Amino acid sequence: MRTLAKMTLAVACIVFFCTGPGASLFAQTASTRALGTIKSISSASLVLTTDAGAEIIVNVDASTKFLRISPGEKDLKNAEPISLADLQPGDRILVRGAASADGKSLSALSIIAMKQADIARKHAREREEWQTHGVGGLVKSVDPSASTIEITTNATGANKDVIIHLTAQTILRRYAPDSVKFDDAKPAPIDEIKPGDQLRARGSRNAAGTELTADEIVSGTFRNVAGTIVSVDSVAGILTVHDLAAKTDVQVHVTSQTQMRKLPPPLAQRIAFRLKGGPPQESQAGPARPVPTGESAARDASAAHQPGGGDFQQMISRLPISSLSDLQKGEAVMIVATQGSQGAGMTAITLLSGVEPILQASPKGGQEMILSPWSLGGGGAEAAAGADTPQ
Among 83, 124, 126, 231, which is least packed by CB within 10 angstroms? Predict the structure, then answer.
């Protein structure tokens, strides 16, 4: 995740320049640091897009030191020397050097780099870890004194309570109100987590799956909307939906980061059948009929709603991607959205269409599905996918 990359580079800089062989030079020379992603490279310079969004020209010469570190490294003992020719656009770098008077360029004394490919591999491992050892649901209660959080999840097909235990090493982060990107989540203490929040935790579960000791927790306050489409403005990226629960029309902004999926009819029917309390369809009518091309996710339906199976969000991530132009007036949708911190309206994180059978089976507007705002499964908006990759 980009946040981890930032932290690692920052730690490396402190270790190297304040305690390592470059400490004396650092103390004697006034310098500026810049952290960001390489936009372009020429023979003697590169353009750096900083994490603040500014562009800086980084000039290098024969005295510039280049080092490459791997994501997750806490110091430079395993760093390897590289050259300017080893860098590529998309790589993350930390530059230390002398700034120009206008602040638009740096004469680099040193550049510490993380290769884009290394970061992508680390993200892939993290996504797999979240899938294999993660659990998500709605917060039921929070006990800061006991360092526990109780959530309700539907990973087994029926609502189930799971106790999340925090340790001194647990990483706690909170979803940014105005962002639909997982990697924009900020560090936050346990007392910011409230009942009704959505939460996802990764860690070690007990055999019964009723408790989890968390290595990392991400939470947020979100708006869940289930209803029918009133209008679609593909140009402005705005969807007007009649919220079945609130019985009012709401406007939802759809961005390039929104994860949009469409349930194939066989899968939607199976989920609706389970919501009504029925056994898996296969047990009543023999093997399921062959699923048409593009609907292979239907095979995940039983696993997503039986003990030991993956959660609904993992199943969604395997579905074909849809777009705003695919949606029609009167179509049913389920949406998870952020509520802007300044009352700026909702921005969709996850939008699922093809849900008519689910809403018909669920008087609560599909709330039983506990749509997760985090795409941790591999595809789509992927906050943990594309959004995590250095931009």
Answer: 83
